[in-house]
Amino acid sequence: RAKDDGRDRCALYDAAMQIDAQSRREAEHKVRRALRTNGLRVLWQPIVDLRDDDRLVAAEALVRIDDPVEGTLEPGTFVDTAEDTGLIVDVDTWVLGEVLRQLREWRGKGSGIQVSFNVSGKTLEHPAFAHRLAHSVESTGASGASLLAEVTERTLIDLSTTTRASLGELRSIGARVGLDDFGTGYSSLAYLDRFPLSFLKIDMSFVRDLGRSDRADAVVEALIGLAHAHGMVVTAEGVETRLQAETLRRMGCDRAQGWLFGRPMTATKLPVRYS
Ligand code: C2E
Ligand code: MG
Ligand code: MG
Ligand code: MG
Prior knowledge:
single chain; 275 residues; 9 strands; globular; binds ligand C2E; binds magnesium ion
């Protein structure tokens, strides 16, 4: 009996592994096809200044796949596979092209908005990425100082010579490098000193209970103090309620992003102001 149970569990486990491998192969296929057929798209999520009446100061580029069969695919369904297969380098490169194009358009119309983009550790391992970025910023006269590059804790933990050089190149064209999803990984303070970071984004898991839990409030207030002590601008992610926003404002958090201020949207829907 016990033996049979064991065998059943093994069979179930094998089946689950196969489904997993299968769905990864499908995800890989979808990313490859999207890269080949111009099937990637960028949506923009507003980032507001909590110290200035929730004024729109930046927008984060979030990638999507326009799948011919399934419609819009969110990054949660393909980014992991893209990282495992190395396809993320091409995805990030495509997104960056979009980011620079959009930035030029907004600049041309007189907006001072900043643009934030996610860059995988795998991508920073390719010396060509930062190089090309620097080149296209210089050759197009785009403003490097308007770029916010978001990296993950993992990137700083694994920091290689190549990655350090890539990040250094971003900084040399005036781009700011910051840490995304702070608090979800190792949350060790040790690596915050490994590279000069300009901003820190507090993960939404810390934001959820703000204003309702003394514990959550204490943790976030400490994170904001820590970031400010390091000279970093703090952005809170996943802000969905007025209570969360007001609590963050009271704590001196600089910026906020979340459904309360706007979901990821097309560039034309973003309420950009032109002077
Ligand atoms: P992220 O960089 O932390 O982006 C924030 C995610 O939280 C986005 O999910 C956004 O839609 C979602 N979000 C924003 N506000 C709220 C809110 O108030 N409530 C809730 N529940 N969710 C909110 P999305 O667009 O699905 O992206 C997921 C992740 O995929 C991103 O997390 C980022 O790590 C990755 N990603 C997206 N675009 C790119 C890209 O171009 N390159 C790379 N390497 N990764 C990307
Ligand atoms: Mg999403
Ligand atoms: Mg991000
Ligand atoms: Mg994040």
